[in-house]
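Milestone 3.1: sequence recovery, worked example.
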């Protein structure tokens, strides 16, 4: 399996799509850092200022990975690479897990480039930003790693099961766009339920009216999605608002999609 991983990494280093994604992470990382510095200069003194540059990449990582993986790993079926690997004696599990490992290394490389873009400002930030709780930062870092693993696992499952590259690209990107906007709605619903506030409603006669909602508790489904959806998790890591259940959900997503994808891939007729 190690040779398969090395083969993927060698191709990644030469892939224009992956190199473009690496380049795109530079302005993204600088923008997140500048946003945190701007909040500080505007009077923000929260330890959560560290969350923006450290964990902000998670907001768009799903969209970036879906584009990169659909164009990179999506060629495996079209070029006959998977069939050739099977003929060479590699098992289905080795091929699948090697692809998953290479995808996670690619995601970590993108994340690392994002962090390195603002490394020259780290000294100034350490002197001026309030120190975050070490335990919270470690929990968020672990959660971020598992968040990336879950997104990679979901992408790889579809990459290994959908043979047509054009279909794969559309499915992956639309899925990540759907999850992104679903997370926005879930977050809004959760915060409205918990914090209360004024909300516009339309009555049976079609008249608009503003209704005040008392703070309360979110429903079970909303609370679950608020903890489980990757974009919701990324936003909460940015706020250094992590709970142990969030990494657990990411780990469960990784395990379930890997097990399901591997089982279906073993049954797939590779031509």
């Amino acid at each position: 399996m190690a040779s398969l991983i090395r083969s993927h990494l060698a191709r990644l280093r030469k892939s224009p799509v992956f190199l473009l994604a690496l380049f795109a992470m530079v302005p993204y990382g600088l923008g997140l850092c500048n946003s945190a510095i701007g909040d500080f200069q505007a009077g923000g003194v929260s330890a959560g200022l560290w969350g923006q540059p450290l964990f902000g990449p998670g907001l768009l990582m799903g969209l970036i990975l879906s584009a990169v993986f659909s164009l990179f790993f999506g060629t495996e079926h079209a070029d006959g690479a998977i069939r050739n690997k099977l003929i060479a004696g590699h098992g289905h599990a080795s091929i699948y897990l090697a692809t998953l490992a290479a995808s996670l290394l690619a995601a970590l490389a993108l994340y690392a480039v994002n962090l390195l873009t603002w490394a020259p400002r780290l000294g100034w930030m350490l002197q001026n930003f309030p120190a975050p709780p070490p335990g919270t930062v470690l929990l968020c870092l672990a959660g971020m790693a598992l968040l990336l693993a879950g997104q990679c696992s979901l992408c790889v499952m579809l990459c290994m099961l959908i043979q047509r590259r054009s279909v794969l690209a559309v499915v992956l990107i639309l899925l990540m766009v759907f999850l992104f906007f679903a997370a926005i709605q879930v977050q809004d619903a959760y915060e409205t339920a918990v914090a209360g506030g004024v909300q516009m409603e339309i009555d049976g006669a079609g008249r608009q009216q503003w209704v005040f909602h008392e703070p309360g508790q979110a429903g079970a489904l909303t609370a679950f999605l608020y903890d489980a959806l990757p974009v919701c998790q990324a936003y909460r890591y940015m706020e250094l608002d992590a709970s142990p259940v969030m990494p657990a959900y990411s780990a469960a997503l990784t395990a379930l999609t890997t097990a399901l994808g591997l089982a279906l891939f073993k049954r797939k007729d590779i031509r």
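The chain has a mean pLDDT of 87. The beta strands are 197-202, 208-213.
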